[in-house]
Amino acid sequence: MGNTALTGQVSASSYIAPFEAARAVDGILKPVNRWVGEVPCTLNFTPNQLYCVNRWVVNGMPTVGWDPQQYYLLTYSLQGSNNNTSWVTLDTVDNTNTSTITYSSDRTFVPTAAYTYYRVNVTKGLKCNPNIASISNFQLFSVDPTSPYLSSLTINSGTLTPAFTKTTFAYTASVDYSTTSIVVTPTAETPTAYGQNAVIRVNGAVTASGAGAAVNLAVGVNTITIDVTSAVGYITQRYTLTVTRLNSNKLTSLSVLNGTTVLPMTPNFDKNTFGYTVEVDSTVQSVMINATCENPASTMTINGGAAVSGTPYGPIPLQTTGDTTVNVIVSTASMSSQTYTVTIKRKEDLTLYSLSVKNGKTSLVLQPAFSSTQYQYSTSVSGTTSLSVTPTASNANGVNITVNGNTVASGSPYTAANLQIGVNTINIDVTSKNTGNKNTYICNITIS
Asked: What sequence ranges are listed for the domain Cadherin-like beta-sandwich-like (predicted)?
């Protein structure tokens, strides 16, 4: 802090020679070094630059030896103005109705003030002569500026780069396409001083220190400015945050439909998972694909054909045997394409359509009655050591059939000979030609 009155320009609305205004600001406390004016009057001061001030000192005539009971000022105030016309009263001394007389004033006030012009406005002069004002010394002290820096800067999405330090003024961050806004929280290093607050503006909007300001993000580069004006001194520091909202080549949903039925998909959809499997029954000839782009501006193809986001695409014919691969490709103007792959597998039908056991022309009764999903049976017969077993596959083209290890064409009889008295086990294996998976039907035949 310093006495700004030693550096500016001083004048008065009136003075009595030789006691001009300059004698009141020269710092010399002598009887002749004073200003004298006719009340009402003002001692005017223009600082050499804009200061924040909060203390003023007025030394009256008792300071330089005059009778303190008679030569003190009655009523005067410190005022400020930015146009030398409209004045704001900052502090007032009134000795007219008080038992405690202020012979020399050394006073502080809050909040601080910063004006282009100041004046001591005397409305009642000396006790002994209210029409005369006399000031031996006037001082106006400035306050050092407080910090225009932030103590922290945080964002609720993305990572600030580089890590925050108060003297680094430019930062970057990137966020996913799904992030449509970001909350910026700036905290002033000196949020308040001398009864006034630092002023923070995020993109021009005033934001309290430590409070979050939401900023909407467009796809691409977004520049966010954080301006910090010190609580004292009116010094402004700008921080700049450049946030890049990434474009999206992702999907937000993907499903496979058989007609209007959504088929189970493995794993469950996640936009960052790019491979899926769906099983369909052997009778399904085609499917539809319904995919939704995260960014509506993206384009999409399904197996090379242009598709509309959120609208079922197809029908997509399925391979008669084996897997069908469907590629969903999402493209944007600013990113490489992203491919999602759906592998559609036919469920293997490894069942028998029918199974018969005959003794000559006589069909034996199976227990329980035959069902394609029932895999164990029993029956009995007497007086024979040879039976005919005929398995018929539900999917004859996709499977191989063996009876006790011997290959049998679907629907063709196999002769089981050399049967023994007692229980004879017949194993009928239905094996996938494609995967090697198999189902085994067991028939226990009791010979007596």
From this structure: 150-245, 254-347, 362-445
**SS3 state of residue 374:** coil
3-state DSSP: the chain helix, strand, coil percent, rounded to 5? Answer: 5, 50, 45
pLDDT digits (tens, 9 = 90+) for 331-356: 998 889 999 999 999 888 899 999 99
Strands (E), 235-361: 236-245, 251-258, 261-262, 265-266, 275-280, 286-293, 299-302, 305-307, 313-317, 324-331, 338-346, 352-359
CB 328 within 8 A of CB 289: yes
Write the CA distances from 400 to 98, 370, 429, 435, integer angstroms: 119, 20, 8, 11
Q: What would the two tokens of residue 316 be?
A: 């997509």
- In which order are the strands placed within the sheet that holds 261-262? 261-262, 251-258, 286-293, 313-317
At residue 6, the 3 state secondary structure works out as: helix
DSSP class per residue in 98-164: -SS--SEEEEEEEEEE--SEEEEEEEEEESS-TTEEEESEEEEEE------SEEEEEESSS--BS--
Domains of the chain in sequence order:
4-142 (2.60.120.260), 150-245 (2.60.40), 251-346 (2.60.40), 352-447 (2.60.40)
Query: Rounded distance, CA 137 to CA 49, Å?
Result: 21
Q: What stretches of 20-83 show up as alpha helix (H) in DSSP?
A: none
Query: What pTM, to 2 d.p., does this model score?
Result: 0.65
Q: Which residues have a Cβ under 8 Å from the Cβ of 122 and sit 6 or more positions away?
A: 37, 39, 40, 41, 42, 43, 73, 75, 76, 133
CA–chain centroid gap for 92, Å, is: 51
Q: What is the pLDDT of residue 1?
A: 61
Which among 308, 324, 315, 343 has a CA at the least distance from the CA of 257? 315
Tokens of 212: 């979050």
Distance between CA 75 and CA 186 in Å, rounded? Answer: 45
What is the average pLDDT score of the chain?
93
